[in-house]
Amino acid sequence: MGIRSFFGLDCEAAANACDRAAYNEAGLADKLRLRFHLFLCPPCKDYTRKSEKLSYLIKKADLKSCTDEEKAVLRQRMDEKNSESLN
Amino acid sequence: MAKTRLDPDKWVDRYADYLFNYTIVRVNDREIANDIVAETFLAGLNSMKNFKGEASERTWLISILKRKIIDHYRRINSNKGKAEVKVNLPDGEMEGDWLEEKVPDLTDRTAEDDMENRELGLAILDCLDQLPEKQAEIFKKKTIEGIDTEAICNEYKISPSNLWVIIHRARTSLAKCLEKNWF
Questions:
Q1: Are B171 and B142 contacting, i.e. CB atoms less than 8 angstroms apart?
Q2: What is the Cα–Cα distance from B16 to B148, expressed in whole angstroms?
């Protein structure tokens, strides 16, 4: 993306606002400036469309991941097993 | 083709999330899923000498995991004579309601949807595997675990702007990868 700036938001800042918006961390002012920017900038509009689609797919997949604590327990159980086989 | 070598020290970091997702959609219980993943890793350690190096490490671990999931259901089924069915009968106020009305409306979610979502989840994890390790870790923490930006920045000793650059790169690569492999 170039550095064309619309309404005080260049493409890099627009991508950043779009990413933050995906995590509900964009402020109202950023969201409004992003809307204006997207109106005039097809590449950023394309990025936002893809980003929204990605968020939708991730939500749909309902991914789970092991927490750090759960991973620590897994490592501990493997270590115990390793030391058992060494003894 | 070069033979794959096993590296059990990296199993938890590399495969725990993938195996956990694979399991939890099949057993629907976080604790049981963690136990099955642990049993898979332990069985993997036990049978390392049988690994021929023809499949990838992950494929080999998944084949063990599948057997562990089947074992889990066999164990449950061995207790089927003791099964107890609980029905919550309606109280007085609701008397007269048809049983059919109490059945959840599943018309908007079919078995095909569930299967598609499982496959989608694994496709996303496949794409995440292709990202640099740290980028994937940070993305998972932020997106899947929903950990606060500040907490992640403190853990990895990075600034918020660095975090957003990492998230942006991860999202761009994932979107590209899914476009190629999913749509």
A1: no
A2: 22
Question: Token digits for B74?
Answer: 């066999």
Domain presence at residue A73: no
Q: A20 in contact with B at a CB cutoff of 8 Å?
A: yes
Q: Tell me which chain A residues have a C-beta less than 8 angstroms from the C-beta of B170.
A: none
pLDDT at position A1, please?
A: 46
Which residue range(s) make up the domain with B25?
1-80
In tens, the pLDDT along B5-32 reads: 888 888 998 899 999 999 998 888 999 9
d(CA B42, nearest CA chain A) in Å = 6
- Encoded amino acid at B129, one letter: D
Best of B118, B124, B180, B181 to mutate (most A CBs within 10 Å, chain A): B124
Shortest CA distance from A81: residue in chain B: B42
What does pTM read for this prediction? 0.75
A19 part of a folded domain = yes
Do both B2 and B74 map to the same domain?
A: yes
Residue A10: give the domain boundaries. 5-62
Predicted pLDDT of residue B63: 93
Give me the number of domains chain B comprises.
Answer: 2
Do the Cβ atoms of A78 and B164 come within 8 Å? no
Q: DSSP string spanning A22-75?
A: HTT---HHHHHHHHHHHHH-HHHHHHHHHHHHHHHHHHHHT-----HHHHHHHH
pLDDT per position as a tens digit, B127-173? 998 999 899 999 999 999 899 999 999 999 999 999 999 999 999 99
